[in-house]
Amino acid sequence: MSEVALNGVAETTGAAAARATALNRLRLSDIAFRELTRIAVYAVLALLSGVILALVIGSVPALKAFGLSFVVTEVWNPVTENFGALAPIYGTLVTSAIAMVIAVPVGLLIAFFLTALCPLWLRRPIAIAIELLAGIPSIIYGIWGLFVFAPFLQKYVQPFLIDTFDGVPGLSSLFAGPPYGIGMLTAGFILAIMVLPFITAISRDVFEAVPPVLKEAAYGLGCTTWEVFKHVVLPFTRVGVIGGVMLGLGRALGETMAVTFVIGNAHTVSSSILAPGTTISASIANEFTEAVGDLYTSSLIALGLILFVITFIVLAIARYMLLRLQQKGR
């Protein structure tokens, strides 16, 4: 009996030791994983800090030479080394605004159609087609916009807009000038096509998360499809929808190659959205390899710093809006 008892004690001790070894191994792996994720976070912060520091240091000569007038000056003359960022800033904001005005309602309607109205056999092909738009390189959009879309706008759309709004207060100056084909309106259309997949995909995912009982209850009360979309689906998914819209806006603000092809690359500020213009990204892409002199290069880097600040402000506003919406939803 004593031998049996000793064997049982030995087995229990061995099992406890094996269990302790396994727990120590798991604890060590958990500590290693925690430290690895911490290093990844610090690496991201270090990279972001490095980018900001490089932009600030590179922008110092231009900011010292021009001061705050750099932001409100339209002139961009490399010959006389007189630079101002107003035209690129204006073009960036205008083209992004045009893109969002077009892409947001279209993307939301497509997402609702796919989740509520589209036949089952057609949902997958349409969803794949929309997602494929996100995979097309931006330079392809630029080439297509320059050789196909811009001539179409020049021949049909822009003359129609000019004739339609001629003499209308406010709108006549917005759609004034000769139909160049290229310009801020064309760039806005191209950006809208490029950000449409992001808005549509995110909106579709959040629309599918709406409990069916809510929509069925609204239909049971006699609501139309539009009323269900407006009063049930959108309020329930507003946080996700705003997140998708801000993601698309961030893409529109920083797009380079596609815009460079179709915007006209003119450092001017015009009240007409049909006129050629430029954006911050397009100006940097066009002129950085040709920049001669420290002041010219510093001015281009300062444009990059301004774009970074604009993007940061947009993201901060988005986070604030999402926080407010989450607080109201509680």
Note down, in words, how this protein is organized:
This protein is an all-alpha fold and 330 residues long. The chain folds into two domains: 1-66; 69-329, Orthogonal Bundle (MetI-like fold). Helices cover 79% and strands 1% of the residues. It has 13 helices and two strands; from the N terminus they run ααββααααααααααα. The chain has a two-stranded antiparallel ribbon. Helix 1 crosses helix 13 (294-329), helix 3 (86-117) packs across helix 12 (280-287) and helix 4 packs across helix 7 (184-208). It is flat. 31% of the residues are buried. The model has no long low-confidence stretch (mean pLDDT 87).
Question: Tags for this entry?
Answer:
330 residues; mainly alpha; MetI-like fold; 2 domains; 13 helices; two-stranded antiparallel ribbon
